[in-house]
Specification:
Blueprint: H1 8-17, H2 22-26, H3 33-40, H4 47-57, H5 60-73
Helix pairs in contact: 4-5
Region (Disordered): 74-97
Domain RsaL-like HTH: 12-55
GO molecular function: DNA binding
Length: 97
């Protein structure tokens, strides 16, 4: 999934459309007012904040897809043990992954 990359101008427009001051707009994203001011002045918005902005301002489907993708990072990968029948006896050490 390709994320929308918000520009400082877009972020400022979103903030103003909601009638928020910088401190109130940027705080839910974990950014200070001064950082928000820098982002709105055309400094690149960091990727973690970009992800949160896509969740906050994207469609419900986009937000769900982002969260689902992030959740897969927390799931352990499973290793498959070699299949053996009882007739074969236990797997040899060299057969194990």
């Amino acid at each position: 999934m390709k994320l929308h990359v918000f520009t400082g101008g877009e972020a400022r427009a979103l903030r103003k459309k909601r009638g928020l001051v910088q401190a109130d707009f940027w705080e839910p994203f974990g950014a200070t007012q001064s950082a928000g001011s820098r982002y709105e002045s055309q400094m690149d918005i960091p990727e973690p904040i970009q992800i949160l902005m896509n969740i906050a301002f994207g469609s419900e489907q986009q937000a769900s897809a982002i969260v689902a993708s992030l959740r897969t990072l927390g799931q352990p990968k499973t290793k498959r043990m070699p299949q053996t029948s009882q007739e074969d006896g236990p797997a040899a050490v060299s057969d194990l992954p």
